Amino acid sequence: MLRDILSGKDAQVLAVADVIKQVSPDVLLLNGFDYDAGGVALADFADLLKDYPYRFALRPNTGLQTGLDMDGDGRVGGPRDAQGYGRFAGQGGMAILSRYPLDAKQAQDFSALKWAAFPDALLPKVDGKPFPSPQAVAAQRLSSVGHWVVPVELPDGVINLLAFHAGPPVFDGPEDRNGKRNHDEVRFWSVYLDGGLGTPPVRGPFVILGDANQDPQDGEGLKDAIRGLLAHPLVQDPLPKSKGAVVAAREQGGANASHQTDPALDTVDWKDTPAPGNLRVDYVLPSKDLQVAGAGVYWPVEGDSGAASRHQLVWVDLVFDR
Questions:
Q1: What is the pLDDT of residues 214-247, one digit of tens each?
Q2: Which pLDDT value is given to residue 306?
Q3: Rounded-to-integer distance, Cα 198 and Cα 176, Å
Q4: How many domains is the chain built from?
Q5: How far apart are CA 193 and CA 174, in angstroms?
Q6: The domain that contains 277 carries what CATH number?
Q7: 23: domain range?
């Protein structure tokens, strides 16, 4: 990835940079961004954008090997035997870029929380026994990538970013290991905001943002967690929409024809036949004490800059006046 960033010629890197420049967010969460301990790739990507002096990234769970068979295939050392799927340590991590200072010293990282220690965890079982083994369940962290709370220092006060990237609820067996883990990764923020983790939640305004890998109505997975988060009394859903998503759903057909979620809310362009089709899986959810001035999804239509990823950029404009 660093090679591709430095080349100045990689099509996807240039497309991602172009979309970011088009939308021009003050604060941005990048998902699927490989982590390196020195932050070299992130620094060089920020230099390419020329407008984000503040950046933040922590080591993700992706590719962090456990030494155990975590997926029950009888082998160890594979990408699914890591704490989060990854062929190498740090693959597909998270990163934050900002025009405002980020308070790294006050940031909270919940990525090491064990799944079994999470309140009312939906742990996978087969015939009543822990899957794939008691040792694997005991070692498994909840976060596929990470759960962070990162303060942003604005001229008039602080907004906390509640950032995450949940794993997909598929690619497993009848034990539904990934489906249950995705459910609990999404439910994490509801439990956190309710004070159920044994640590006080942040005070004041916040924004939950990230890839939940979960649509509230369509596609696979357990829906209670995402529906509960969208309906949480401290959270508002600005319902970001795009015309591009509507056009894509109509033209691509397939699974999109039977979806219940408004296609204007879709954020990801996945395979349509046989499934899952385009879904709403990426979210920016401000706290209710913030005023929303606008929201949308950058889903290109004819004449716009091209797509940089299957996932489209979700944006929300906020009025912060304390």
A1: 999 999 999 999 999 999 999 999 999 999 999 9
A2: 65
A3: 28
A4: 1
A5: 31
A6: 3.60.10.10
A7: 2-319
